Amino acid sequence: MKSAIHNANMMNGSLWNKILLFALPLAATGILQQLFNAADIAVVGRFTGDQGEAAVAAVGANSPIIGLIVNAFIGISLGSNVVIANAVGCGNTKTVKKAVHTSVLLALIIGVLISVLGQIFAKRIFLSQNVPADVIDMAILYFRVYMIGVPVILLYNFESSIFRAIGNTKIPLIALSISGVLNVLLNLFFVCVLHMTVNGVALATVISNLISSVILLTVLIKSDDMIQLKISDLKIDGPVLKNILRIGIPAGIQSAVFSFANIIVQSAINSLGKIVMAASSVAFNIEVFAYDVLNSFSQACTTFVGQNYGAGKIDRCKKAFGLCYLEGCIFTAAAIGIILLLGHDILAIFNKNPEVIEIGYYRLVMIFASYFFSFSYEVMSGYMRGFGMSLLPAVLTIIGICGVRIVWIYQVFPKYKTFQNIMTAYPISLSTTAILIFIALICSHPAKRILNKRKEGS
């Protein structure tokens, strides 16, 4: 039985409430995804006895590496989002259908390839990092199990990009809510009942992502909307793929280089011992909750601008940008305030070591102090991507964030080998990037450029 999917009308009516109805479920989805990893850390930190700190450090050592490998290709799903959103705005149902089928098949092909390569190079990857001897075996074990699930993890994210493109962020949230509850239950079962360690929580994450991706796949197949998926029609459409990659590859490269810079930062953190590794890992898994709120308004900006650009409503694109920025500032500030207020108690859930809690809270303060810059460049980049301008913000982000952090770790950190020194790289790199993106937005002025082209054409 087929069913219609109720989507937001982004091209008509009030914008402020529609942006919230789009962004808040998306933020909740991102937070729930992060809870997968947070649940892994909480369970291994509390229920693996004397191995707790080493297990937490092992999962934490995986975060930037998995981020590099997986997020690079998840970034390509942004190309699917923009292509489908533009086609929806133009009313081009044929292109929407081609993009849906191309996106799903592309996710599976890339996922299988990454999974195989991950198994082959797992040991070499972690030997290249400064992972302590009492952590490295568990880090490799977690990584190998996690890599098995990469195809379904990418599939879920590409499917989510399809739903976002038509303005529906509720269905991915429902799917992830179901699998999120399952993830926690499986974590406890594998670790507490079967006495597994990091391999148990990694397996729980894989199974949970499988469930969420199957749910979305089922909805796409049963839909009678323009995004209906037919297994028999699964094939790569050349022109659509080219357009997806034109927008998605710069975003993917940005994510990859961003994660590469974080691997270098993580390597410096690893050199300070497992207590600092555990503290940084726990704090990272908390601070990302606020980032998910921030990022949801950036993605809302991309999708709303993408659809209205496709429909030729340039003034509405500019209005969407302003509202995404204003509403995003309010909700991101609220998220930061709640986390800082409850920070010590939340950190204690993961690890009760007072030293871990204090170091972790210091990281939260340093990261959040620079979140205004992070939010600004994310929303401005989202605005530009909505117009199909993906390369410029990607290049500037690589220079501002990755360049600054890499130089800092190699040139400044060796002189003062402290955690405080490492954390200083974050506000410097984020503020540099925000300034670069702002200058680029003023100079490129995509809305004005498009309006001038249309006047010249008429």
Question: What is the chain-wise order of helices and strands?
Answer: HHHHHHHHHHHHHHHH
Unreliable runs: none
- Residues in helices, as a percent range: over 70%
Provide the β-strand percentage band.
under 5%
Major beta sheet, specifics? Answer: none
Query: Class by helix and strand content?
Result: mainly alpha
Distance between the termini: 48 Å
Instruction: Give the quaternary arrangement of the chains.
Output: single chain
The overall pLDDT average reads 86
Number of helices: 16
Instruction: Give the count of structural domains.
Output: 1
**Tally of strands:** 0
Overall 3D geometry?
A: globular
Structure notes:
The chain is an all-alpha fold and 458 residues long. It has one domain (16-448). It is 84% helix and 0% strand. It contains 16 helices and no strands. The relative contact order is 0.14. The model has no long low-confidence stretch (mean pLDDT 86).
Concise account of the structure shown:
The protein has 458 residues and is mainly α. Helices cover 84% and strands 0% of the residues. It has helices at 16-47, 52-74, 77-90, 93-127, 133-148, 150-165, 170-193, 198-222, 238-270, 274-310, 314-350, 354-368, 371-386, 391-412, 419-444, 446-457.
